Amino acid sequence: MKKSYIIFGVIGGIILIIFLMYYTAYSGAVTKQENLDEKWNNVQSAYQRRADLIPNLVKTVKGAAKNEKDILLQVTQARAGIVNAKTPEDLEIMGKKINTAINIMYEAYPEIKSTDNFRDLQAQLEGTENRIKTARDEYNKATKEYNTHIRGFFNSMFINHETFPRKTGFTADKGSENAVDVDFEDAK
């Protein structure tokens, strides 16, 4: 009778070990798959942030630059007497008065801030792209961990590969390995 208890104990122990191996493999795969999905959602979130933020920043910078241009043009024309001048004689008189005033006192023009706005826009663009790259890198790292887990020797025996298929990391678009050609002619 003692032999039968030993045999049942050994069989029970083997079943328990197999169950624990299956449980560990399956639970680990679920955890890694959820982590992988979270990382991809973070990539999508970074894309959405870019789509929401950048067009609004560009509109704001363009609007500020146009406003500054209009104000500076009006101030310059007013100081030159062009706005109120009706005849060439008026222009000459206005010009003499303004030249005299310029010589007498310091003349302050509005401070130009649009260059700073463009610099801030560039910083936001760079920061956004860095966030996206970081999210992509974290996704690729999670993909590697997940694939390594499901393809491990014991785990591959216990895991259903339809439930836990192998995943592909982020890959760049075809041709993106080439340098980007920046054309400043369109910026005129």
Detail the topology: elements first, then pairings.
Elements: H1 2-80, H2 88-104, H3 114-151, H4 153-158
Helix pairs in contact: 1-3
What features would you describe in this structure?
- By secondary structure, the protein is mainly α.
- It is built from four helices and no strands.
- Helix 1 (2-80) packs antiparallel against helix 3.
- The mean pLDDT is 80.
Relevant terms:
0% strand; 188 residues; mainly alpha
Q: Any idea what the radius of gyration is?
A: 35 Å
Query: Which H/E pattern describes the elements?
Result: HHHH
Beta content comes to: under 5%
- Describe the biggest sheet? none
Shape: rod-shaped
Q: Helicity, in percent?
A: over 70%
Query: Taking all residues together, what is the mean pLDDT?
Result: 80
Tell me the total number of β-strands.
Answer: 0
N-to-C terminal Cα separation, in Å? 97 Å
Low-confidence stretches: none
What is the number of helical segments per DSSP (H or I, 4+ residues)?
A: 4
Going by helix content, strand content and strand pairing, the class is: mainly alpha
Question: In a few lines, what is going on in this structure?
Answer:
By secondary structure, the chain is an all-alpha fold. 74% of the residues lie in helices and 0% in strands.
